[in-house]
Amino acid sequence: MPFDDRGLAYGDGLFETVLVRDGEPLLWDEHMARLARGAAVLGIPMPTRATLEALPARAGKGLAVLKLMLTRGSGGRGYLAPEAPEPRLRWQAAPFAPNEARWRQGVAVRHCRLRLGIQPVLAGLKHLNRLENVLARAEWSDPEIAEGLLCDVEGRLVEATCMNLFWWRGGAWHTPSLERCGVAGTLREALLARLDIRVVAAEPGALADAEAVCLANSVQGLWPVVRLDDAEGRCLSRWAVNDRHRALQAEAHALLGHPRHPHD
Fold this sequence. Notes:
Radius of gyration: 19 Å
Number of domains: 2
Cofactor: pyridoxal 5'-phosphate
Number of helices: 7
Catalytic activity: 4-amino-4-deoxychorismate = 4-aminobenzoate + pyruvate + H(+)
Structural class: alpha+beta
Organism: Halomonas organivorans
Keywords: Folate biosynthesis, Lyase, Pyridoxal phosphate
Shape: globular
Family: Belongs to the class-IV pyridoxal-phosphate-dependent aminotransferase family.
């Protein structure tokens, strides 16, 4: 990556992390749709579909994660982008093994102190500027805490540091609206297209009387949440893994090729 690449200098670009099983990408259409949306918003020309579709097979046999990074390339003057950008596509594939214990036993998570800034223009995109997530993830080092929940600056639930949030309450699944900030995960998009999940604006108190809480993304699959702590490490809520968790997990894992019933 050249020193003057705008992705390196300014976070002027996008990325995707794609689960690949024996050379076949999972949720590929959703990943390509999000990449195209981001490229349109940022004004970065998309690589040809043939170029992109040739990459998953190069991940080889077994389970791997393919990371695609698309930047605006070099050029321009300061923040002023070049009139005719020459995008730069980079990719890397790495072997992957999911943490199956988290599927079966569930995870402990905590609230983060950091608040996400509101920027509707970038909401939903997986752009390269992820400093908020980096700072949020630096808030804890306890290996027993699997993830941190993030709110925006107005106190509304958004996501976890690298996963989307779901909870069952009042007879329905809910997930936070991502119209103002956050990353619209591809597994979240696929589940919204297939299931009756309510997209809502909610504060953290909504989780207090939830019957089930889950985190999910297109690489790890779905983790049931069994404990929620505040930002100081005090326990706020506990849940036993139940049929609600398992039903949504089965739907999510069917889309990824992960075991639908990992507890069996």
